[in-house]
Specification:
The structure is a single chain. The chain contains ten helices and no strands. α1 packs across α8 and α4 crosses α8. It has one domain. The model has no long low-confidence stretch (mean pLDDT 85). Helices cover 67% and strands 0% of the residues. It starts with 9 loop residues before the first helix and ends in a 15-residue tail after the last helix. It is mainly alpha-helical and 187 residues long. The protein is globular, with a radius of gyration of 17 Å.
Length: 187
């Protein structure tokens, strides 16, 4: 039977879940990233349309806009890509794209913000994959959630270097360590 988490506030509940996921994923996000992830989860909890947006168009609109509107649109694109790649990875398969697509688009949105206003967004771009891995661990804490299959895990590891995906592959195989294929090498 699953334990019921009771915390005094919604924020505390999300914080507890993220902390548990960090432990499960053997990751430790710094306090700023952890807080950003908690508040992103809170902000999108009441937005079921998250999985219905055409994110590439939102990204292009965000690049063309100026000022606060640009900031909000690019931040939302980065946040949506983070949540889709971490909590709703099967959305990529339904849209016939790889999870790496969401990772690269999200990183690009955060990097665009960093280039325009500097600050914290560069760290979000750089640490996108560990934050995604924590979100994958959130899915796996509840044993009823579907994990990525091994092929999707391999593709995610190969495209992004996801440690969570590599751990999933390693647990399922007896082949030992995996190495990335150098695309420059000819056989």
């Amino acid at each position: 039977m699953n334990n019921i988490v009771t915390e005094p506030t919604t924020t505390a509940q999300w914080q507890s879940l993220v902390s548990d996921a960090e432990i499960a994923a053997s990751l430790q996000l710094d306090e700023t990233l952890e807080s950003y992830l908690v508040f992103t989860l809170m902000r999108f909890t009441q937005r079921p349309e998250l999985t219905n947006s055409i994110i590439a168009l939102e990204f292009l609109d965000g690049i063309q806009n100026q000022g606060q509107q640009q900031h909000e649109q690019l931040r939302d694109v980065g946040d949506k890509c983070l949540l889709l790649s971490g909590l709703f990875p099967h959305t990529a398969k339904r849209r016939l794209v790889s999870l790496g697509y969401f990772v690269n688009l999200g990183r690009s949105a955060y990097q665009q913000l960093h280039d325009k206003i500097h600050g914290f967004y560069g760290q979000l771009a750089a640490d996108f994959v560990p934050m995604m891995d924590v979100l994958h661990a959130i899915r796996e804490i509840n044993q009823q959630s579907h994990q990525l299959d091994l092929l999707d895990s391999f593709e995610l590891w190969d495209e992004t270097g996801s440690q969570q995906a590599l751990n999933r592959i390693s647990k399922a195989s007896n082949t030992g360590q995996l190495f990335k294929h150098d695309s420059e090498t000819r056989h």
